[in-house]
Amino acid sequence: MAGAGWGDARVLPLAGDASARRYFRLTGAEGSAVLMDDPSGDCARFVQMTRWLRGHGFGAPDLLAEDQGAGFLLVQDLGDDLVARVLAARPRLGPAIYARITDFLVELHRQPLPGFVAPLDGPALADQVGLFADWYPQAAGIPADEAMAIAPAIAALHADLAADAAPVLSLRDFHAENLVWRGDAPLGLIDYQDAVACHPAYDLVSALQDARRDVAPGIEADCIARYLAATGLDAARFRAAYALLGAQRNLRIIGIFARLCLRDGKPRYLDFMPRVWAHLMRDLSHPALAPLARIVAGLPAPDAAMLERIRSRCARP
User: Fold this and answer.
1) For residue 123, is it within any domain?
2) Residue 105 vs residue 44, higher pLDDT
3) Is residue 188 part of a domain?
4) Which of 199, 220, 225, 305 is the residue whose CA sits 20 to 30 A from 96?
5) How far is the CA of 107 from the CAs of 116, 169, 186, in angstroms?
């Protein structure tokens, strides 16, 4: 901070996320900036992705100073107008904001893939969804045998429904709390260090099937239609892949939320489980996902009684 001219700044903590990263807002004579303290070793990936995004005209924050070895980055402060907050205060902006989000993805997906992002293909998606079998059955107090069939089903369905699509850049953790509304300026972007090469539907699902807030079904339908109109992709195959990627993401998220409680002592994420389960059920209603739907049908939903049982087993932080 001192070396970058912010030694006299006032330091205030900012809300964190489910990771070990911490954020602080610095305010001083030069305005404000954000200090990121990342002990996980993701700084290099964040810097690399930031430079790529800014080089292509997207709204990632400017890098003001860095000490990647120590896990510190000082970046431009994009402000407090997270899309989630703007929508909570002005819900009538929902259609316009989500249209802008969709247009952003259309433009992002037109860019050549950066060579440094890892693929998130069928085998990788199947491996990720293993988190559900690892954590949800034990949280629910049931055997894991049935849930173990989910990952192979995801891999097989991806090969049938999505493997033929050219991969695009996916920012991955792409939702209303990781986007900053700046009016006519480009959308502000945060938390994109885990970007991958994936099916074009992945980030659209992430934004429209948000674990933390409800998105009106009409907005979701309009955004899918808007994306298809702009890209010319085959609508039937895209919608099937959208449902599959939604199911994969929602199963993985439920596993993560169970782990955050049982292992990490963070029970607040359990409140989102019923919404995520509802997204999952809607995805599984797609006829192409019938093999996966049959497996999940044998598993209990996270109702109020189950969530209370999981909370009672929450790890002490």
Assistant:
1) yes
2) 105
3) yes
4) 199
5) 19, 11, 12
- Separation CA 130–CA 32 (nearest Å): 41
**Which residue among 58, 76, 94 closes a domain?**
76
Q: How confident is the model at residue 17 (pLDDT cuts 50, 70, 90)?
A: low
Query: Looking at the structure, do residues 123 and 228 belong to the same domain, yes or no?
Result: yes
Strand pairing partners for 11?
Answer: 26
Residue 231 lies in a domain: yes
Burial letters for 101-137: b for 16+ Cβ neighbours within 10 Å, e otherwise? bbebbbebbeeeebeebeebbbeebbebbbbbbebbb
What domain range includes position 26? 10-76
The answer to whether the beta carbons of residues 286 and 166 sit under 8 Å apart is: no
Mean pLDDT of 271-286: 98
- Residue entry with tokens 């988190």: 131
pLDDT at 18 over 60: no
Threshold 0.85, pTM exceeds = yes
DSSP SS3 for 282: helix
